[in-house]
Amino acid sequence: MSHRTSCFQLNDLFPREIDIEVCLKTLKIFQKLEGDVNCVVWDASLVLAKYLETMCQHKADFLSGIKVLELGSGLGVVGLTAATLGAQVTLTDLPEALPLLRLNISENKQKIVSMGGYAIAESLVWGDKNSEIHKQEFDMIVLADCVYYEDAIDPLIETLQCLNNTINKKPTIYLTQELRDSDIQKKLWDVFYEKLTEFFYIEKIPEEQQHVNYRSSDILLLKIIKK
């Protein structure tokens, strides 16, 4: 089968794609036309990805060589950005999300490697305390727009706690969340935030410290460290 035919079939399966510029590299991200929350690029993921890029512009070794875990990766925008900036990244999501996530890693692999980074996708079900992911140590955890379903709140909190139980490290967590207008989504965020404050210190990163073109008053960017 020719390369041209393969590309045609790929575009049939994933007809939407976007390009994201990261330090003069162009990442290609495939999306689906329809599906669950992990099938499209959300604004909060762009805000976090561009914040990481901004930090690396101020401090060249901000991500260089460090171990990063992304939770709820979806299409992998944040994790792939971190890898392109030199981090060693494990991107995670539910098993059904991995094919598209791995496609995006493969599509951008050469650019990531050329910048000294690394990216791999693994399955992680929040709340699964037996996951091999919990046995690893990470310097940083990133997650974007992950507070969406009520039944995922407690498992997400449990996972964040498990990932912070290693003896030697307390990873820094960067989280973005779009504050939506619906009463249900407002309540979900309030519940999550209250539970998060029980176990973690939380610092809101002001808009003026974020990327000049990728920030919004309705998208929170938080820096989180375990108490």
Distance between the termini: 55 Å
Q: Which outline best applies?
A: globular
Identify low-pLDDT runs: 1-15
The radius of gyration is 17 Å
Protein name: Protein N-lysine methyltransferase METTL21D-like isoform X1
Organism: Vanessa tameamea
Pfam families: Methyltransf_16
Describe what you observe in this structure.
The protein is of the alpha/beta class. Helix content is 34%, strand content 25%. It contains 7 helices and 9 strands; from the N terminus they run H-E-E-H-E-H-E-H-H-E-E-H-E-H-E-E. It has helices at 3-13, 43-58, 77-84, 98-107, 109-114, 153-162, 183-199, and strands spanning 16-22, 25-31, 67-71, 88-93, 118-123, 140-144, 172-178, 200-204, 219-226. The strands form 2 sheets. A 7-stranded mixed β-sheet has the order 5-4-3-6-7-9-8. A two-stranded antiparallel sheet has the order 1-2. The protein is globular and about 40 Å long. Residues 1-15 have low confidence and may be disordered. It holds the Pfam family Methyltransf_16.
Describe this structure in a few short sentences.
The chain is an alpha/beta fold.
Give a quick set of tags describing it:
single chain; 227 residues; alpha/beta; 7-stranded mixed beta sheet; two-stranded antiparallel sheet; 9 strands; disordered N terminus; SAM-dependent_MTases_sf; Methyltransf_16; Protein N-lysine methyltransferase METTL21D-like isoform X1
What is the element layout, followed by pairings?
Blueprint: H1 3-13, E1 16-22, E2 25-31, H2 43-58, E3 67-71, H3 77-84, E4 88-93, H4 98-107, H5 109-114, E5 118-123, E6 140-144, H6 153-162, E7 172-178, H7 183-199, E8 200-204, E9 219-226
Parallel strand pairs: 3-4, 3-6, 4-5, 6-7
Antiparallel strand pairs: 1-2, 7-9, 8-9
Helix pairs in contact: 2-3, 6-7
